[in-house]
C-alpha cells in the first residue's frame, strides 16, 4: 500500500466528500497499481505531450464500467475529472493489441478536439497493461440515465430541441474534422449541470479516410447503422443514422428496440424491418 500514497479520497473544491471503503480502495488499486511506483510521477522514454503527472492524480469512486474499462471520479491538479482505466487481458494477445490501438487512437483524437459540445481532454498515461484517459467530469451523468428517470414521452419539447441541437453541434464539429464517432448513443452523451450535452467516448472513432470497413467492429447494435452491421464500407452517414435513434430516445424517453435482443435488433435493421416498431418498454440491455 505504501506505493499508493497518491491514491486518496476524492474531493469537491478541495473538501473531502468521504473516505473510500476498503473494498473500493482495493478494487481501484487492482486496476491502477501499474500506473505508478514509489515517487508517483511517470517520467521516461517516449513521454508524450499529453502525459499525466501522476503525482497530481487522485482516484476516487467508480461510477461506470465497460467490458474492458472502468471509469472513476477523481481530481487532477485540483480539477474534478473522470478517469478511464483500460486493462489489457493477459490471456488474449490479440485483444490486448486492439485495446492499445484504440487507446492510442482515442487519445490522438481527443487531443485535437476543442468544442463546447465535445468532452474536454485533460491528460493520459500509458503504462501497459493499464492505460488511463483523463477528461473533464460532468456531474449530470449520461443522457440515457436522465431519460430512464423520466416518464415515457414526458420530456418537454423545448428541452428535446435544446439537447438535440447540442448533440448536432458537437457532431457537426466532429465531422468538420473528418472524424466518425461510430458509437453515438445516449450512453455516450454526457450532461452538465445546465443540461448542456457533450459527446464522449471516442474509443472506436476514426478519421474518415482510415475507417475502412466495420469488420471486427464492436459498436452497439441498437444504435448501429445497417452498413456497419453488415461490416461494409461506411461514411459519416452512420453517425447520422445513430443521431436519428437518439432523437427518437429524446422524444420517447425509451430504449430503442427494447422488444428485441441486441442480436434481433441488428438482424431487423439489416433487413430494413427494424424501424417499424422501435420499442415500448424500458430496462433492456444494449
TrEMBL record:
Catalytic activity as recorded in UniProt: L-seryl-[protein] + ATP = O-phospho-L-seryl-[protein] + ADP + H(+); L-threonyl-[protein] + ATP = O-phospho-L-threonyl-[protein] + ADP + H(+)
Single GO BP term: signal transduction
E.C. numbers: 2.7.11.1
Listed Pfam families: PK_Tyr_Ser-Thr
A single cellular component GO annotation: cytoplasm
UniProt xrefs under InterPro entries: Kinase-like_dom_sf, Prot_kinase_dom, Ser-Thr/Tyr_kinase_cat_dom, Ser/Thr_kinase_AS, Ser_Thr_protein_kinase
Matches recorded under Gene3D superfamilies: Phosphorylase Kinase, domain 1, Transferase(Phosphotransferase) domain 1
Transmembrane segments: none
Keywords of the record: ATP-binding, Kinase, Nucleotide-binding, Serine/threonine-protein kinase, Transferase
GO molecular function: ATP binding; protein serine/threonine kinase activity
Superkingdom in the source lineage: Eukaryota
Domain Protein kinase: 57-286
Enzyme class: transferase
Protein family: Belongs to the protein kinase superfamily. TKL Ser/Thr protein kinase family. RAF subfamily.
Protein name as catalogued: non-specific serine/threonine protein kinase
Organism for this UniProt entry: Prunus avium (Cherry)
Amino acid at each position: 500500500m505504501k506505493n499508493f500514497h497518491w491514491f486518496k479520497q476524492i474531493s469537491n473544491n478541495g473538501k473531502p466528500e468521504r473516505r473510500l471503503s476498503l473494498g473500493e480502495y482495493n478494487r481501484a488499486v487492482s486496476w491502477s497499481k501499474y500506473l505508478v511506483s514509489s515517487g508517483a510521477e511517470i517520467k521516461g522514454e517516449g513521454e508524450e505531450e499529453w502525459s499525466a503527472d501522476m503525482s497530481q492524480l487522485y482516484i476516487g469512486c467508480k461510477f461506470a464500467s465497460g467490458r474492458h474499462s472502468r471509469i472513476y471520479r477523481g481530481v487532477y491538479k485540483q480539477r474534478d475529472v473522470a478517469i478511464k482505466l483500460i486493462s489489457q487481458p493477459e490471456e488474449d494477445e490479440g485483444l490486448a493489441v486492439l485495446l492499445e490501438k484504440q487507446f492510442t487512437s482515442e487519445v490522438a483524437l481527443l487531443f485535437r478536439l476543442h468544442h463546447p459540445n465535445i468532452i474536454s481532454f485533460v491528460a493520459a498515461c500509458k503504462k501497459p497493461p493499464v492505460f488511463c484517459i483523463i477528461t473533464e467530469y460532468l456531474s449530470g451523468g449520461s443522457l440515457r440515465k436522465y431519460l430512464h428517470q423520466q416518464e415515457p414521452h414526458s420530456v418537454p419539447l423545448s428541452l428535446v430541441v435544446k439537447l438535440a441541437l447540442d448533440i448536432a453541434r458537437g457532431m457537426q464539429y466532429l465531422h468538420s474534422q473528418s472524424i466518425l464517432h461510430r458509437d453515438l448513443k445516449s450512453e455516450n452523451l454526457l450532461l452538465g449541470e445546465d443540461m448542456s450535452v457533450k459527446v464522449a467516448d471516442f474509443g472506436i472513432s476514426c478519421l474518415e479516410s482510415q475507417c475502412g470497413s466495420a469488420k471486427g467492429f464492436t459498436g452497439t447494435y441498437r444504435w448501429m447503422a445497417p452498413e456497419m452491421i453488415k461490416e461494409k464500407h461506411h461514411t459519416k452517414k452512420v453517425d447520422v443514422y445513430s443521431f436519428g435513434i437518439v432523437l427518437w430516445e429524446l422524444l420517447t424517453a425509451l430504449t430503442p428496440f427494447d422488444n428485441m435482443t441486441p442480436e434481433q435488433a441488428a438482424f431487423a435493421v439489416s433487413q430494413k424491418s427494424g424501424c417499424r416498431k422501435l420499442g415500448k418498454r424500458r430496462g433492456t440491455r444494449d
